[in-house]
Amino acid sequence: MSGGVDSSVALRLLQEEGHDDLTAFYLKIWLEDELHYLGDCPWEEDLAYARAVCDAAGVPLEVVPLQRQYWDRVVSYTIAELKEGRTPSPDIFCNQRVKFGAFIEEVGAGFDRVATGHYARVEESGGLHWLKKGVDPVKDQTYFLCYLDQAQLARCIFPLGALPKNEVRTLAERYGLPNSARPDSQGICFLGKISYNDFVRHHLGEKPGDIIHRDTGEKLGEHRGFWFHTVGQRRGLGLAQGPWFVSGKDVEENTVSVSHADELTEASRSEYRVGEPHWISAPPGEGPLQVKLRHSEHVYDCELSEADEAGYVVRLGDADAGIAAGQFTVFYKGDVCLGAAPILG
After folding, report:
1. How far is residue 25's CA from residue 13's CA, in Å, rounded to a whole number?
2. Domains in the chain: how many in total?
3. To pair with 202 at 20 to 30 A between CA atoms, which of 74, 157, 246, 309?
């Protein structure tokens, strides 16, 4: 239970489906205490909503402190990736290592199943559990669940997977939930209302350097640290005569390269390398594949081929200007999420 409308509706749906031995858990994460001075930390408000929903449903709510596990398994990874100039995907590891990792290790062993408010589906076939997209293409969250394994999927229930978001809101009103009109949370899983740049600055500080034109090498401005920027970014550059977008970073030279929107085609690419893929159920086999490069409804047709010991090559059916080392390519066959691989460059 997060205190949001999705997990609250998921709880009530479980009751309607006949699950009468339920316990709700609020996962308390490290950042909410350690960096509270950076902004308004919402955990007390979140917990109050979660308690109100559980009290009305007659379901016990327990608070599980997982600050140390978050630091060890998600936050330290995020900081290390930023320092190396890569683009981390903390929400993917938040799910794999904490919500369906540390939580199950700490608490979940005493329960048959674990349910969340994710927009995704799990189906069992041929002795395997398959992760499938949620029916709402905009809300589908399989991108963030792409590193789960068979043991984790076997425990999962996603009550919202077959519902569009507007129907979830309607159900929240029908149930009379106190958070039925509460806005959806945005941003990285562990930040809450804390500014991303403030979080980065707290851990990595500032390291001013040049912003240069990708093609000419001309200095166009200055940045406060390459770790504040990611490939494809279009906001926060402070450059005139835009729009400009980040097209690369040089960690050794401490430079951020940019291209103008008029140069988008030249800065885009359709081929890149990835590391060893994590297959959720089974390798893809023959036939067409699709990929998501980020959490969105947009998918690309692609081909995946093994190159050498350095990794695999992904060839997209179209070019993209936001392919960044450290991101994850998530593979699909139709509505089945097959797994993912980290982008090497």
Report:
1. 16
2. 3
3. 246
Cα torsion for 86, 90, 91, 96, to the nearest 10°? 120
Q: Mean of the pLDDT values across residues 239-248?
A: 92
Say whether both 13 and 91 belong to one domain. yes
Q: What sections of 131-242 are H helices per DSSP?
A: 150-155, 165-175, 196-204
Above 90 in pLDDT, residue 186?
no
The one catalytic residue in 54, 189, 302, 337 is 189
- The helix-helix angle for 5-16 and 165-175 (nearest 10°) equals 70
Confidence of residue 144 (pLDDT cuts 50, 70, 90): very high
pLDDT at 189: 65
Residues 19 and 100 in one domain: yes
Q: Are residues 107 and 12 in the same domain?
A: yes
* Domain membership of residue 23 as a residue range: 5-117+159-175
Q: Is 189 a catalytic residue?
A: yes
> 41, 94, 146, 302: which one is catalytic?
94
Q: Is residue 136 part of a domain?
A: no
- The answer as to whether 145 is a domain residue is no
pLDDT in tens, 282-316: 999 888 899 999 999 999 999 999 877 778 999 99
Structure tokens at 319: 């070019």
pTM: 0.92
Question: Are 104 and 40 part of one and the same domain?
Answer: yes
The CATH number of the domain holding residue 311 is: 2.40.30.10
Distance of CA 264 to the CA centre of its chain: 26
pLDDT at 36: 54
Q: Is 94 a catalytic residue?
A: yes
